[in-house]
Amino acid sequence: MIRSYATDSMRPSPDVPGAGQESVWSYPRPPVVVASERHVLVRLAGAVICETRRALRLLETSHPPTWYLPIADFAPGSLRPTPGSSFCEWKGSASYFDVVSGDFVAAAKAWTYRAPTPAFAPIAEHVALYAAAMDECVVDGERVSPQPGGFYGGWITSDVVGPFKGVPGSSAW
Which residues span the domain enclosing 116? Predict the structure, then answer.
């Protein structure tokens, strides 16, 4: 369930996880990286651009997991470096990719940390994607929902509960 909050100063009450679910409010801060063997499939413009069982999940308080997929598991030519960078207090400097499928380009909708801080070294050579910009991102056969707000890159599946950062009124969480 995605909720909206009237003011940024309101901290939400975590949803109660059911059997087989985890609450994003039990994730740590600073975040941690956890390996996953779940089947991840990404389609763009009708083509599979990535398929892997070697993903990494970045887990951070109040955020659905951000999935980092091995660069080696992307279709050749589907990631095109693009200008621009950003900085994360935990992971370091990010660089961006256009995601390409045939003639379709999702401009700057993927990012990587080429030389992450030591705590996040496992995500080097991995790429995260904005799910909303893809035809679909699928984890173990379930189509993910993008983290609300358009800024964060988390993927929501039925096994995680919120509320999730990114909804209106959540900027101060």
Answer: 26-161
Whether 11 is in a domain gets the answer: no
CA angle 142, 148, 153 (to 5 degrees): 70
Q: How far apart are CA 87 and CA 113, in angstroms?
A: 10
What sign results for the dihedral spanned by CA atoms 117, 94, 100, 58? Answer: positive
Looking at residue 122, which CATH number applies to its domain?
Answer: 2.170.150.40
Closest CA to 60 of 30, 86, 87, 21: 30
Are 66 and 155 within 8 A, CB to CB?
Answer: yes
Pair 65, 164: CB distance under 8 Å: no
Query: Each residue of 103-149: pLDDT tens digit?
Result: 999 999 999 999 999 999 999 999 999 999 999 999 999 999 999 99
pLDDT tens, position by position, 156-173: 999 999 999 998 888 888
Q: Is residue 37 part of a domain?
A: yes
